[in-house]
Amino acid sequence: MKNENKKTNMYQPDERLKSEVTPEGLYFSRRELIKKGLVAAGALTLAACGIPPASNIPDPAVATGQASQGLITANNVDELGAALTPYDTVTHFNNFYEFSLDKEAVADRAKGFVTQPWQIQIGGLVKNPMTLSMEQINKNFAAEERVYRLRCVEGWSMVIPWNGFQLSHLLEQVEPQPDAKYVYFETTFDSNQMPGLRDPGFPWPYTEGLRLDEAMNPLTLLATGIYGKPLPPQDGAPIRLVVPWKYGFKSIKSIVKINLVNEQPATLWSSVAPNEYGFFANVNPDVSHPRWSQATERRLGEISRRPTLKFNGYEKEVAYLYEGMDLAVNY
Ligand SMILES: Nc1nc2c(c(=O)[nH]1)N[C@H]1C(S)=C(S)[C@@H](COP(=O)(O)O)O[C@H]1N2
Ligand SMILES: [Mo]
Questions:
Q1: Which ligand is nearest to the CA of 153?
Q2: How far apart are CA 208 and CA 186, in angstroms?
Q3: Which domains does the chain have, with CATH numbers?
Q4: What stretch of H or E contains 317?
Q5: Mean pLDDT of the region 219-226
Q6: Residue 249: which of 96, 87, 122, 89 has the closest Cα?
Q7: pLDDT at residue 70, as a whole number
Q8: What pTM did the predictor assign?
């Protein structure tokens, strides 16, 4: 580790801000794209609903200057009109503590991570437990593109075109039993390939959980790709969760196990610091982290901070899940 202070990124906002600084000129802001005539002002795509973009929107690979990298996406903005975060940023600014606590070192450390063969075990309180290879998953669950905002609890965000399928489609296949109330997820524990696992400060493997109704929400995705390419190791190859209305740490990478359970499972971050990282972790500008405000965020590639949106802008789709709950208590 180059810098021991980076060890505690999710604890030290100052250190975090330093590592957030990204080279200027690498990114196009939406305003610049509009100036260049590449994005129609007010153009709206309903990526989250799978509605294809309007035909007047130009090829986004061209818009983001990335055609030469073989990147494919049907959208160049999210449904709020914000530009996609460039592929280089999505793949070189990562939180994946099994490889490194230094966001800019993860890609290099994860290079060559062997994810073949790969199996996911789905079991627990289900009628049809199954073990699926990635080949079976790719064959049985058609990937679609979803453009989602990813908001890290640390206060930065990106807009990412994921390829994947709804977790609900997989859960329907295994048929949860009536007493199944939560879904538990586990990342692979591969100490030969993941140097970070030697860090005794974390209760490895990385684990996460959702309430079953959250898991069944149509926005909840199992992603196998970004920008039309297979997920690179640093982004959670070969398959990871994406829960766009929750802080990024819920979106667990490189999953090998999914269990249906009847009690709220312990998760890595809620075990490490329960007062800072709750089970729900819904993006909420009104509920501060104990050591910093969550009212604003820095979109990578932008200079000034922007306001953080309740449920990360997905309130219409998910607010029903939390009716009657005090979100400051159930953080
Ligand atoms: N297994 C595992 N999953 C993980 C993490 C991790 O360290 N290990 N980091 C989380 C955090 S804090 C964030 S913000 C997102 C980052 O995803 P990205 O690097 O693809 O942008 O992954 C989440 N999933
Ligand atoms: Mo995060």
A1: 2
A2: 7
A3: 5-322 (3.90.420.10)
A4: helix 315-318
A5: 98
A6: 96
A7: 80
A8: 0.84
